[in-house]
Amino acid sequence: KFKEDKLSYDNIPTVVFSHPPIGTVGLTEPQAREQFGDAKVKTYNAKFKSMFFDFVDDDHKEPTVYKLVVVGEEEKVVGLHMVGAGSDEGIQGFSVAVKMGALKKHFDDTVAIHPTSTEDAYCSAVGTLHLNKLVVQPSRERQLGPTGITSST
Hints:
With 153 residues, the protein is of the alpha+beta class. It has helices at residues 29-36, 87-99, 104-108, 117-126, 138-144; strands at residues 14-16, 22-26, 41-49, 63-71, 76-83, 149-152.
């Protein structure tokens, strides 16, 4: 049954166990632009302080940065890159979604686990980027501003 099966080396997640940790899966933005063309690539970016550091002095809060790389009108997710608390653990679940060909809409429609750093990936970077759907907890609004979200094409 498995005689002809071969491992695909596409979309293998990678983690650097550093402080803060780094997790990545799929194409980088430059790779996506080279493969699909500039007009088809869009990124969603978020930078915030993880809820893990809510009770820590500002001088000791590690930044968290996420970038979601999507292509086409359907916004197929072709890359996710994370730096910050929880990125090392969280990238594994996201890698399954990328490997399966998930669309940004699938991320949008997913309810995140609270409280986790990867929840911030859903809520800030990939989950509720439609501003009409954005729900920001009052304590987070101070840190994120009104949205805490940027996107670029």
